[in-house]
């Protein structure tokens, strides 16, 4: 599929005849709908939404994650995160602990129920990605990764790559969570 060489500056009207790009935009909308659909159904059983999903995902991947770091990752307000965290803590999916070296830090850990839910959601999305890659060329995964990174603003790419590169860096300090 040929892609136009010229990129329209932000806010500039785009030629509606750029069908190749418009179809990619529409595919992203539909792919996102499918990627989130099954997890949304599972989350709805608990009265949770996508914000809960993102919190569960990143705490699952980074046990002991500081609340401040989660705010940086999610790019949401403190109030939004506080609301979601309160629900997850009150329902027994996440526990908060003070930091070992700085008692003011709040570190987040999944409970066994939180781990089970996070793994179920992740399994659904892994299956979706595996299926999509099975329909692509064998070497498509690196191109897909490069494309997705390219969708992220250049000022954020390094931070996102750092988050992705070391998902379990805090695991050694996490320990088992009892509830």
Written account of the structure:
The chain has 8 helices and 3 strands, in the order ααβααββαααα. It is mainly α and 179 residues long. It has a 3-stranded antiparallel β-sheet with strand order 1-3-2. A hairpin with a 7-residue loop joins strand 2 and strand 3 (106-110). Helix 1 runs antiparallel to helix 5 (112-134) and helix 2 (50-61) crosses helix 5. It starts with 18 loop residues before the first helix and ends in a 5-residue tail after the last helix. Mean pLDDT is 86; it is low at 169-179.
Query: Mind summarizing the main beta sheet?
Result: 3 strands, antiparallel
The stretches of 5 or more residues where confidence is low (pLDDT under 50) are 169-179
The radius of gyration over CA amounts to: 19 Å
What is the number of strand segments? 3
Strand content: 5-15%
Question: Structural class, judged by helices and strands?
Answer: mainly alpha
Order of helices and strands: HHEHHEEHHHH
Helical stretch count? 8
The average pLDDT score comes to 86
The strand order across the widest sheet is 1-3-2
N-C termini distance: 53 Å
What topology emerges from the helices and strands here?
Elements lengths: L18 H26 L5 H12 L3 E2 H8 L3 H13 L3 E5 L7 E5 L1 H23 L5 H12 L2 H12 L5 H4 L5
Antiparallel strand pairs: 1-3, 2-3
What is the gist of this entry?
Helices cover 61% and strands 7% of the residues. The protein has eight helices and three strands; from the N terminus they run ααβααββαααα.
Short key terms for the protein model shown above:
three-stranded antiparallel β-sheet; 61% helix; mainly alpha
């Amino acid at each position: 599929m040929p892609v136009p060489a010229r990129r329209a500056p932000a806010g500039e009207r785009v030629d509606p005849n750029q069908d190749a790009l418009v179809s990619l935009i529409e595919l992203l909308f539909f792919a996102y709908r499918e990627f989130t659909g099954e997890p949304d159904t599972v989350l709805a059983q608990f009265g949770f939404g996508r914000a809960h999903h993102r919190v569960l995902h990143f705490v699952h991947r980074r046990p002991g994650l500081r609340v401040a770091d989660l705010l940086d990752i999610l790019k949401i307000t403190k109030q939004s995160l506080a609301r979601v965290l309160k629900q997850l803590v009150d329902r027994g999916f996440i526990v908060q602990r003070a930091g070992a070296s700085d008692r003011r830090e709040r570190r987040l850990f999944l409970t066994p129920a939180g781990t089970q839910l996070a793994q179920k959601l992740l399994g659904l999305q892994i299956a979706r990605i595996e299926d999509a890659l099975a329909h692509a060329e064998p070497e498509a995964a690196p191109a897909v990764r490069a494309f997705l990174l390219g969708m992220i603003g250049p000022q954020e790419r390094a931070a996102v790559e750092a988050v992705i590169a070391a998902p379990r860096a805090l695991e050694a300090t996490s320990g088992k969570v009892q509830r």
